[in-house]
TrEMBL record:
The keyword Transport does not apply. This is Dolichyl-phosphate-mannose-protein mannosyltransferase. It comes from Flexibacter flexilis DSM 6793. The chain crosses the membrane at residues 12-32, 83-102, 114-132, 176-194, 206-224, 264-282, 294-314, 320-340, 352-373. The keyword Transmembrane helix applies. It comes from the Bacteria. Keywords: Membrane, Transmembrane, Transmembrane helix.
């Protein structure tokens, strides 16, 4: 597969240096947020069973295809189980993301000088950059999805598209949805933009999706044969996430989904798009086909995600929308290059947009307002403060099992740190606990519980401050 537009190879290599530095700095960070379940626990099950089964036990099974967990377990088998090995196992996916982002940037930029700038804007997406610091299956999703989109837009051999789709649908249930979204987008492109001449041509182009469809059907059949259910586990701890929300909840989810595309600096993309719309309205120029095709991907992916997300109570995270956010950013950058002839104006708009996007890592909400901490680099100090808190508890011989806390600090240290010791915190109960370990990372503390801690407990020890703090509370003596 040759680089598009015959770019020098360093255009494709520089993101790897950035990702290598990020991986090196974060290689000792624990499994975090949903990755504790989806990466660590799932990977360990496959590791401990010697990759001999595809189906997870009931308490771990969310219905996801097994590719990521199997991959992590295989790497552990080859290189040993450690946090560093886990993080570096993700590095090839990061290389792939950088490669595909550069391919897409080269596609929309006739000016080589802007290829690096556009690539940097894509990779600076707050949620993507934060996930890149973690052991996250969303990085596999992003790589395979970007590869599929780039294959379609660059008219690569359809075999490459088929392979990218096979990987995408086997990472998770959301990967299957993204595959459908990409397929819908290409259908829109073929029918309304390229205007495929006949049904035979249309079916031939869409034939690359057949292997992925057959693999998904085989997985769903096998999972149903083994467990009696597909889609979601009615006996799992997260089954409430799949309850229907009604009309009011549906519109509330629309607002949340829109907010996730604006929060944490992502508003930068939409500000550029708004400016572009004003300029286009004044010029009334015909947009190039590439603009329409990227827009088709944005629409197709969002339509599928909306259909399967909006009717349910499942929280909509920022990382769920990485791919549509990247499509929106790519479109914004393409319109910036196409509609602004003045190079100085173009550069200032880009600089302002990039600064706003990067500022997303500084968007820290006040106490009581839930944040998507797994989608901002602001969460990173949490790991160091957690280690200091554990060291304090051990020094004063306070068993962690007597200290109340909340997600993501409830899993055992084997699941978060791959440590061979039975160490874990208990779920908080402010009526019975004598010690509580609280942090603004933990969205599970209600306003009433936070007020109770401030008024009726004393801070035994505090670590950090802004953007992350961790406090060990001790009940005040009566």
């Amino acid at each position: 597969m040759q680089p598009s537009n015959r770019l020098p190879y360093w255009y494709y290599v520089w993101p790897s240096a950035v990702y290598a530095l990020l991986t090196l700095l974060c290689a000792d960070n624990s499994f975090f947020w949903d990755n504790i379940m989806q990466a660590s626990k799932a990977g360990q099950w496959y590791y401990n069973t010697n990759l001999s089964t595809l189906i997870l036990p009931t308490e771990l099974d969310a219905g996801h295809p097994p590719l990521f967990g199997l991959y992590l377990a295989a790497v552990w088998k080859l290189m040993g189980q450690s946090l560093a090995v886990s993080h570096w196992a993700i590095f090839p996916l990061l290389l792939g993301i950088g490669w595909q982002a550069t391919r897409l940037a080269a596609l929309v930029s006739p000016d080589r000088k802007w290829v690096v700038l556009i690539t940097a804007f894509l990779l600076a997406d707050t949620a993507l950059l934060a996930q890149a610091s973690q052991v996250s299956p969303d990085l596999a999703l992003t790589f395979f999805a970007l590869w599929a989109v780039a294959n379609i837009l660059t008219h690569s051999r359809r075999e490459w598209l088929a392979i990218s789709l096979l990987g995408l649908v086997m990472v998770s249930t959301r990967g299957i949805l993204l595959g459908f979204g990409i397929g819908l987008a290409e259908l829109i492109i073929l029918v309304f933009i390229e205007k495929a001449p006949n049904t035979q041509t249309l079916l031939k182009r869409l034939g690359a999706y057949i292997p992925a469809i057959l693999l998904v059907l085989a997985w769903l059949w096998w999972h149903y044969h083994q467990t009696g259910w597909v889609g979601y586990n009615p006996a799992s701890q997260w089954s409430a996430n799949y309850e229907r929300v009604g009309v009011a909840g549906f519109f509330r989810n629309i607002i949340i989904m829109k907010a996730r595309l604006l929060e944490l600096g992502r508003v930068a993309t939409w500000l550029v798009m708004t400016l572009a719309a004003v300029v286009w309205w004044r010029k009334r120029v015909l947009l190039p086909l590439i603009s329409l095709k990227i827009f088709a991907f944005l629409v197709g992916i969002m339509v599928v995600l909306a259909i399967f997300m909006l009717p349910y109570a499942n929280p909509i995270g920022h990382r769920y929308l990485i791919l549509p956010a990247l499509m929106a950013s790519l479109l914004a950058m393409q319109l910036l290059l196409f509609l602004w002839e003045d190079g100085t104006q173009r550069r200032w708009i880009y600089r302002g947009a990039l600064l706003v996007l990067l500022s997303g890592h500084l968007w820290i909400y006040p106490a009581g307002v839930a944040m998507g901490w797994d989608s901002t680099l602001a969460h990173i100090p949490y790991f160091g403060y957690r280690k200091q808190a554990v060291a304090h508890l051990k020094a004063y011989q306070i068993p962690a099992g007597t200290v109340g806390s909340d997600f993501p600090n409830l899993a055992s240290f084997w699941d978060t740190d791959l440590m061979q010791e039975p160490y874990f915190f208990k779920e908080k109960n402010l009526k019975k606990d004598d010690f509580v370990l609280e942090s603004n990372i933990m969205n599970g503390f209600s306003d009433e519980e936070l007020a109770d801690l401030r008024q009726h407990w004393q801070v035994r020890r505090e670590w950090g401050g802004w953007p992350v703090y961790m406090r060990l509370y001790e009940r005040k003596p009566h």
